[in-house]
Amino acid sequence: MATPAIDPATPNRRGMLAAAAGVLLLAACGRTGAEEGPTSDATRTGGQELVLGVSLELTGAGAALGVLQERALRISLESLNADGVPIGNLRRTVRLEVRDNASDPDLAARNATELIQRDGAHALLGGTLTETSAAIVGVAQQLRTPYVSLAYGDGIVLPLAQRTYVYKLTPDASDVARRLARLIASQGRKRVAVLAADGLHGNSGVRAMSAALRAVELPPGEVVRLPRAGESFLRAAQRVVAAEPDAVVVWGTAPDTGGAVLALRQAGHRGPLYLDAGGVAEDTLADDNSAALEGAYAVHPICLGGSTLTNTTTAALARRDFVYRYIQRHGSFSGFAPYASDALQLIANAARSAASVDRGRLRAYLQNQVTEGIAGAYAFAPIRHGGMDRNSLGIYRVDHGGWVRVS
């Protein structure tokens, strides 16, 4: 399989990450004090705490992703609060105010408003579905509160002029699509169909795959949209199979991805399948899905492959420790991207650097963070609020019911 070409701008970003990642990770976990900051911070809402408002899909269509993120969040919170976060002249603990948005955008917006106005949240995180995240974006902007989204969909942080308080941890659709298109081309596939989720995430995928396929001189093929959650996917799958593709890209989020793959197999597709990062969750390879997905490829952050015993970088050790504690508590670790853990650490790093929990200062320090987390590496900048670095992505294949890294 051909190795994907590296973007000319990549070395600079990788250099930034290499220089800064270890420093920021160590600083976030260090025991040393910080220089004295504004004493008025201690009298703000939350007292001597850094208060984070969390809105997650703990029930409803997005629960396959939301529940995993809450698990990750709780594990990392324990580690962070073991020493506290040095912020100004105080060592603060982090308090989470968690709300179930039930996968409902309207409820997610109400959650966000209450978390800020009633609970005094200094920053928001959450939203694993694009629609719930989009609803939180409006509240965060209006109330000028930093918000770190865990959802897929480039529109969450664009246009930037209207998303000044908003950050996204998931990979950009263009980066995922580029890797998928190069893989498909290297395998000699000629007719590519895209089966995409309904909504903002699917829209990003359709646009990105169309551009990426043209870049490798493959014509964009049939595009079929999945019906909304709760409806049968079989008719959409039959439309894809009728186009006689020799490769199908399924662009969606769990649990819809597993259902879409099953429908494609039922409709008669026997060729290869390719998934975007949003389709990878514990649910994806559960039960009947495992056999249907055998041999399928996915582009996903590096955490899907775990940490090797010989990798002793600070980030790898943190990742290994996270996986160990996750398995202790929940029995297994499927390699989903624990964005919530990274969101928690990024906000804590911003508060430490700002020596304050002031929302405006948190926003300012968030947009200049370059660090490596558990899911992957991030490089925020004033002109880039989507932080997952493209070099944090790998290509994986389902082999005997598990994910194996191939590139």
TrEMBL record:
InterPro entries cross-referenced by the UniProt entry: BCAA_transport, Leu-bd, Peripla_BP_I, TAT_signal
Record-linked PROSITE patterns: TAT
Listed Pfam families: Peripla_BP_6 (PF13458)
Keyword terms: Signal
Keyword Signal: yes
Domain Leucine-binding protein residues, every copy: 52-387
SUPFAM superfamilies in the cross-refs: Periplasmic binding protein-like I
Record keyword Signal present: yes
Homology family: Belongs to the leucine-binding protein family.
PANTHER family registered for this protein in UniProt: BLR7848 PROTEIN, LEUCINE-SPECIFIC-BINDING PROTEIN
UniProt protein name: ABC transporter substrate-binding protein
